[in-house]
Amino acid sequence: MPISGKHRRPKSSTIARGVAAAGAGGAVIALPLLGATGAHAAEQAAPVAHSAAATHAASAAPVANKQAETRTYSVVAGDHLSKIATDNKVEGGWEKLYQDNREVIGGNPSLILPGMKLTLGGSAAATGTTQAPAPSKAPVAPKPAAAQSSSSGYVSPVPGKHTTNYRASGANWSSGSHTGIDFPVATGTSVKAITSGTVVTAGWGGAYGNEVVVKHADGHYSQYGHLSALSVSVGQTVSTGQQIGLSGATGNVTGPHLHFEVRTGPAYGSDIDPVAFLASHGISV
Question: Which position has the higher pLDDT, 277 or 13?
């Protein structure tokens, strides 16, 4: 009777031992053999190729990501670096934006021009961004008349008459109305202190761009905004008609001009009618 227990499965022949077949004439024909070593090599070839492709893709990924992080921004009228950095979530703020684009902007971070191409998220030099072409020069205007002066010790801040009136309304102003008056003068026009006093502000003023605020002996303050350059510093004493800066188009503007205010305090929101104030001292603007 059969013996109970495990049945041993007969070993199948392996192709590694070769196969022989008898030809029609009785000759033995040797068929091609695939050795174990060759089969193992074939099995390993695909993973090696896959690994090389994966390595290349992994090394390329950081480069692609870096390129995706770098963007280009074209400056428009009314822009300033702080606004651009905030709107585009630039890490490091306007200081980093200026550092990356210093070759494009130049030495004055407050003076950026419409049409400039700024790099966001990387250095302009590294990405090949070049400095925007300098804007064409405007026709040379006739030399304006000298600023007014009076025996009361006051002068007009710049030559000429003002355009935008005090308390003019519109969406151009965050408060809903104009807190000063505007003088339509070209960039680089000398801006004068209307009377003697002490400088209490000289620097970046947000929407006002570069600004100077002077405290006068009667307790009033005069403010000069959108300057392209500053000629005084905080704490400095200035005399009537002394240059405190150059007009420009920094901050929130649509073109070069001087924004002028008279205030009862040093800060925004304490403005009074500058036309009436200057008129009371013999100056008509």
Answer: 277
Band of the pLDDT at 7, cuts 50, 70, 90?
very low
Q: Coil, strand or helix: which one is 25?
A: coil
Where do the H-state alpha helices sit in the chain?
36-69, 81-87, 93-100, 102-105, 124-127, 274-279
Place of tokens 């008459």: 161
Identify the CATH number of the domain in which residue 84 sits.
3.10.350.10
Q: DSSP of the chain, one letter per residue? A: -PPPSPPPPPPPPPGGG--EEE-TTS-EEEPP---HHHHHHHHHHHHHHHHHHHHHHHHHHHHHHHHHH-EEEE--TT--HHHHHHHTT-TTHHHHHHHHTHHHH-S-TT---TT-EEEESS-HHHHT--PPPPPPPPPPPPPPPPPPB-TTS-B-SSSS---SPTT-BSTTSTTSB-SSEEE---TT-EEE-SS-EEEEEEEE-GGG-EEEEEEETTS-EEEEEEEEEE---TT-EE-TT-EEEEEB--SS-SS-BEEEEEESSSSTT-EE-HHHHHHTTT---
Q: Which residues pair with 222 in a beta bridge?
A: 214, 262
pLDDT band at 200 (very low <50, low <70, confident <90, very high): very high
Choice among 80, 162, 257, 259 that is catalytic: 257
Can you tell me the mean pLDDT for 221-243? Answer: 95
Average pLDDT, whole number, for the chain?
A: 73
Which residue segment(s) compose the domain that 268 sits in? 181-279
pLDDT at res. 277: 94
Count: domains in the chain: 2
Residue 108 half-sphere exposure toward CB, CA atoms < 13 A? 16
- CATH code, domain carrying 194: 2.70.70.10
Q: Is residue 7 annotated as a catalytic residue, yes or no?
A: no
